[in-house]
Amino acid sequence: MSPLRWEVLGLAFVLALPVLALGWRGDLTLDDVVNRLPWCLAAAWGAVALLTAVARPRTTPSTPEPGVRDEPLTPSDPEPTPAP
Fold first, then answer.
1. Looking at 1-84, which runs of residues are DSSP E strands?
2. Which of 61, 63, 80, 64 is closest to 72 using CA atoms?
3. Could you count the other beta carbons within 10 Å of the beta carbon of residue 39?
4. Each residue of 32-78: pLDDT tens digit?
5. Which of 18, 76, 9 is nearest to 43 (CA)?
6. Are 16 and 37 in contact (CB under 8 A)?
7. Whole-number Å distance between alpha carbons of 70 and 55
8. Is the separation of the CB atoms in 11 and 44 below 8 Å?
9. pTM of the prediction?
10. Alpha carbon of 79 to those of 40, 60, 70: distances in Å?
């Protein structure tokens, strides 16, 4: 997943708002603000990756082909014939 997707950039902007506000107010220097902004992008990328992985539906096993058995053969069962 690219860190420059729209949902990642949007969340990074939301996470960067407090950092930008602290810089605007004067509590953080410009160097501190610039050093913390990439961490906002990294946190947004991690959060979106985690939510994407959790929200992805589970895949179910595909239906078996005709003539393919799921259970093992017992000695009384005839040998299976291969599908054409």
1. none
2. 80
3. 13
4. 999 999 999 999 999 998 988 888 877 776 665 666 666 665 666 56
5. 9
6. yes
7. 30
8. yes
9. 0.62
10. 61, 28, 14
Q: Give CA–CA dist 65/83, Å, rounded.
A: 9
Q: What angle do CA 10, 55, 63 make, to 5 degrees?
A: 145
Interior angle at CA 19, CA 55 and CA 17, nearest 5: 55
Length of the chain: 84
Distances (CA, A) of 9 to 27, 55, 60, 80: 25, 19, 33, 56
The DSSP secondary-structure symbol of 55 reads: H
